[in-house]
Specification:
The protein is mainly α. The protein has two domains: 3-388, Na+/H+ antiporter like fold; 405-548, Mannitol-specific EII, Chain A, CATH 3.40.930. The protein contains 24 helices and six strands. It has helices spanning 8-28, 33-44, 54-59, 61-77, 81-84, 88-112, 117-127, 132-142, 147-178, 185-215, 221-239, 245-255, 262-266, 272-286, 291-294, 296-320, 325-328, 340-350, 357-388, 417-431, 439-452, 509-524, 526-533, 538-548; strands at 408-409, 456-458, 461-462, 465-468, 476-486, 496-505. Strands 1, 2, 3, 4, 5 and 6 form a six-stranded mixed β-sheet that branches. The longest helix is centred in the first third of the chain and has 32 residues, at 147-178. It is elongated, with a radius of gyration of 26 Å.
Amino acid sequence: MEPQSVSPLLSIGLLFVAAYPAGLLARKLGVPAVTGNILAGVLLGPSFLKVFDRTVAHELEPITIFAMGLITFVTGAHLSYRRLHNALGRILSVTFFQVAGSFLFVTLGALWVGAGWKTAVLLGAIATSGSPAALLAVVREERAKGLLVKTLLASVALDNVLSIVFFAVARSQVVYRLGTLDESLWAATLTPLQQIAFSAFLGVATAGAVLLVIRWKLIEPFSGLFLAILLTVGGAQFFGVSPLLAPLVLGIILGNSGRENEGLITSLESLQPMLLTCFFTLAGVDLDTSKLVTMGALGAVYFFARGTGKILGGYCGAALSGTISRLRNNIGPTFLPQGGLAIGLVVLVQGDFRLPQELITTITNVVLAAVVLNEILGPPLVRRAIARSEEAGKGRRRIVEFLQEEHIQTPLRVTDKWDAIRQLAAFLLKSHGIKKVTPEDLVRSVEERERTISTAMGEGVAIPHAKIPAGPDEIVGVMGICPPGIDFDAPDGNPVHFIVMIATPKEDIDKHLQVMAAVARIVSDPGVRARLIIARNPAEAFEAIETGLTEDYNYFLED
């Protein structure tokens, strides 16, 4: 049977049947499944066995675009303020330096080998883009969780936004300088920014609509979110604006719409494995390995300059933000994958009749050749970085789930223990996104218990706690670190430096004692306390807890 006669639905089935075992084999060989999927696509594609030709990628383009929309939606959802509020400095620093580094290194490198400034600037703008799909696939596969993963996923979401803006401005300036655009410089700059703004508006409007229909129970979350992504991606295509930025903004809005809506983010999780497998296999089919021959010196400079800019930029951004060493030393290589967005930007270049054909051909050959290398070599480097940062396998639920960076406040500046209770109660409700319980109710519950008997345990530790009638569906808490210490009526008479406040829903009382015991063991460890007291920020405090405890303290729950 000729490849052209295979129906699109059968093509999807055959792609999955071929790619899934390839992903399993790749994992057996110690590389990410995504690499196996891509290589399976390359092997089955026109470059080698010719089982599929590139018409398959064209026929299945709607599925590819929906998959990219889902990926960028999930990536955008990681920009949740309540999870990032005390890590924004690090995330912004890392994002800025890795984006700026790749742009500058590629632009200067292209000029160094004799490319014109127009080619150099466009290549530099495209070089800033990353591959959220590859990163998300590796993170899911490794079940990774921690400071590096948190920083990476937030940074790559911002990276996508900046890449789209960089490219839009760079292309408009190139077209203006070529004299093929009959408008002012200001108009040339403003037009692409207006298109970006409309993409964002489309994402915001769709998010508002889907939240309303789900809140009114007019549609179930799975169907509502599926429809929302279809509308944002399809609407963006219809209006000729970015089909990646609109679902990314949709994800950002839903990710910040309150704790009660967080279930929406995961409602399409069951679809992701198959979509990602087919997406990467199709990407492999569509990769033109012959471009590797035509990339030449400019292509080699693009590949190595981009890699250097990403690695150095990531390292410098993390170092300047004062973050921990295992994040600083491993964050750079995680930005190396490059795929869907870069290809999408190349397509925009190819469809721009105002650009000279020679420039279009050069950019196409260089970027597509680099994408082949980055998509194949990048994911294993991401996997290695996650393993070296010791975050693989930690994306599982623990007995104490709330001891995360976003729930730690240091230094805690208070006047007495009642002030500490008030501040931590407000911080708990804010950082966990709880709106059904007021700060006054939580403070009242904690203070009633505290006036009966002090919750100070001795050795500088106190664990004030309360039972709440409604709110989250799990036990929540926060930690405050007060280096000077405060009087907490401790049994040993010593000041308290470490305060862990816990709020337990009344229906979860059975687990309350287990969580309390686990927290007590963690903060009673002298090594953990010694590192906590010198922590300069919440990231270092989280690192002290992670490196100081054993699984006997904060063990993983069964899947």
